[in-house]
Write a structure and sequence with these properties.
258 residues; 10 strands
């Protein structure tokens, strides 16, 4: 009987995972095109790709969140919750990393009987690793947002995220923001793993209102080694200020470490 229960739980979990992730697979390709890789970091094409990736993650993360909630519910009532532990940890790691998935690998893992065999890799550049952080998954926000524990965008003086792992390499740091009242002395600063990147927000980069967003390329950060469990802190002015609204913080790898 115990073996039958375990088999039923395993099949149910796999079907739930496959149903959710099939939706993700149908909504995106996992590789960036060679044309985008060949474009400059400040090009319009690269900016459009960044926004596209952000929009994909806005779809992916809620699906992963619902899947995680269902797993946790099942684990709470299961006779052997350890059966769910590894999958819960895997999904939590996906969400913490910004919802970045190798969808072909996930589909083959969850449904090996029907997933197509992997074709030979094309002779193109590998896709850039992109992590998108949102206020909904921040560890802390100052000042504390009003009316929502998981805002789509947050007025911040300071916001912190825990990043489970980030490989060695060089990364572009890009913020999708709104700031109708940009002042010349508004310093935007990110610190992570002993690195600090900062830029003053040009008043000409102010937005029309708090629902109109622009992209700010904060700068580049180079990690000499892979980091695990580090906190990324983003500040805008002083901790208690609230004139700078953050919708997404994007960490996009420019090149792997040599």
């Amino acid at each position: 009987m115990m073996n039958l229960n375990r088999r039923f739980i395993s099949i149910a979990a796999r079907r739930l995972a496959f149903a959710g992730l099939t939706f993700l697979a149908s909504s995106a390709m996992s590789q960036t095109s060679p044309a985008i890789e060949a474009s400059s970091a400040d090009s319009k094409l690269r900016q459009m790709e960044t926004i596209y990736q952000q929009q994909l993650r806005a779809r992916h993360i809620p699906v992963l969140g619902r899947y995680l909630t269902e797993l946790q519910k099942q684990a709470a009532t299961a006779t052997d919750p350890k059966l769910y532990t590894a999958e819960i940890q895997r999904v939590q790691a996906m969400i913490s990393a910004g919802g970045v998935l190798n969808l072909n690998s996930v589909m083959r893992e969850l449904n090996p009987e029907t997933a197509p065999a992997a074709s030979a890799p094309a002779a193109i550049r590998p896709a850039r690793a992109v992590t998108t952080l949102t206020p909904a998954f921040a560890r802390s926000i100052q000042p504390v947002p009003e009316g929502s524990a998981s805002p789509d965008a947050a007025a911040i003086g300071q916001i912190e995220w825990r990043i489970e792992t980030l490989p060695a390499g060089t990364y572009d740091l890009v913020i999708q923001y709104a700031c109708p009242t940009a002042k010349p002395d508004l310093l935007i600063e990110a610190t992570f793993a002993g690195k600090k990147i900062s830029k003053n927000l040009d008043p000409s980069k102010a937005t029309k209102d708090i629902t109109s967003y622009r992209l700010l390329r904060l700068g580049q950060m180079t990690l000499d080694k892979t980091t695990s469990g580090e906190t990324l802190k983003l500040t805008a002015g002083v901790a208690g200020s609230s004139s700078f609204f953050v919708r997404n913080f994007v960490i996009a790898q420019t090149k792997p470490a040599e």
